Amino acid sequence: MAWLLDDQRVLASCEQAVTLPQKTKGLLGRKSFDGAMLIRNTKGVHTFGMHFSIDVAFLDRDLKVLATRSVKPWRVSMPSIKAHNVLEAESGAFERWGLNVGDVLEIKD
């Protein structure tokens, strides 16, 4: 299992979606999600078929947080042109974690 860190502080367990099937499935079909999902090489997300709202962070290549937003079920987020990765978590997680624009995240196994 991988962990999501911010300045050496563990924020949550972290799943990574790298392949097209993993990216397509994402958090679909889950009733809730306790952790984070890092979707590599993408600029935007949708919540069609989702059962809960999510927090979305748009990240650059170095996993620096460029922007965050909350997305309700059955919506499409506006893509971020500068993003190379997207981080998803259940709504409210970013506030609990103290995640802010400008933070540089790290994934540790």
Describe this structure in words.
- The chain has about 110 residues and is mainly beta.
- It has one domain: Jelly Rolls.
- The chain is about 10% helix and about 40% strand.
- It contains two helices and seven strands.
- The protein has helices at about 20-25, 95, and strands spanning about 1-5, 10-15, 35-40, 55-60, 65-70, 85-90, 105-109.
- The chain has a seven-stranded mixed sheet.
- Strand 4 and strand 5 form a beta hairpin.
- The longest helix has 6 residues, at about 20-25.
- The radius of gyration is 12 Å and the shape is globular.
- It starts with a strand and ends with a strand.
**Strand share of the residues?**
35-45%
Please report the first level of CATH classification, the CATH class.
Mainly Beta
Count of alpha/pi helices: 2
CATH superfamily: Protein of unknown function DUF192
Helix content: 10-25%
Task: Report how far apart the termini are.
Answer: 6 Å
Which word captures the global form?
A: globular
